[in-house]
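Purpose: get a first structural picture of the assembly so the mutagenesis plan has something to point at.
Setup: two entries, given in the order below. No constraints added.
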Amino acid sequence: MTTPVEAPLPAGPVIIYTRDGMRRGALAALPLLAGLAPFGLVVGITGQGVGMSPLEVGLMSAIVYAGASQLVALTMWTHPPDLVTVTLAAFVVNLRLALMGPVLAPWLSQVTGWRLWGGLFMVSDQNWALSVREMNNGGRDVGYLMGGGIAMWSSWTASTVVGQLVGAFVRPAPGHPLFFAALAAFVCMLTGMWRGRGDLVPWAVATCVSIGVAQLLPGTFWYIVAGALAGSITGGLRDVRR
Amino acid sequence: MKVDPWNLLAFLVMGMATYACRGGGYWVFRQMKPSPTLRAIMSYIPGTLFVSFVVPALVSGGLQPTVGAAATAGVMLTTRSMPLAIACGVAAAWVVWLLR
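Result (structure tokens, whole complex):
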């Protein structure tokens, strides 16, 4: 993932919001749905593993609609859930989304109401990338963001429910290798996040700090927050000083 | 089809935290431009966050997840296919699980 930069305001016709733009956004998202589905299955199986019903898994996906944070929260789910832990997990994992909305400012600053705030709800890694590409190619139709978002949101929710049903059918015991799928999904995402040698020191710092804090505070998830903050502050300060 | 009220409450607060990032991030950064330092730091968050999630899990999990993670990463780097990489990783972890 590269550092998002403010795109220049496109010159020319004004920003529009049409049903046709929504349709084109949904069509552009279709090829990505096949890639999203296995991840949804993993989240659904993990949800079933902590005892959630299909409806609960579906509600979680529909309300939160952010897969990585759902998976992190589910791997630390308790009964009843620790509200502080899962909320903080959602916030920290999704902090990257805060940088995505501003990149779409040439579109979003021209709309108001649900077209703006509903469009922001639809900002996910993939849908955001599609909309940025469309915008940079001269697209003027903000409905594109909503159309792609609706396609992804509905199929995401559905795929996690299917995952729950698969898990309920297989009924893997705790510690079963099927649950390794959650960790495997993070390993996959990690391989895509390596941007080059500049990541070496921040990732090494994150490794050391997270292992250390995990030893010091067992049974909590502070090691994730501590490792992420230590690594990213190291990298950020180094880049700015340079 | 049960819905535990505590679970529902957790979904709602998680949803609020997530929307605070999606919508709140846009709103805040319209009011004040994020400094280059903050931008640089935030750009490192996804990678370092997943490192901090995965590595301690491998350290505490031992052989099974470590072999699985190596297989996942290997297949992901060669094929770029996430479903295939997850399937191969789970299969490798499964083999270790069966052998012990």
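Residues 5-31 of chain B form the longest helix (27 residues).
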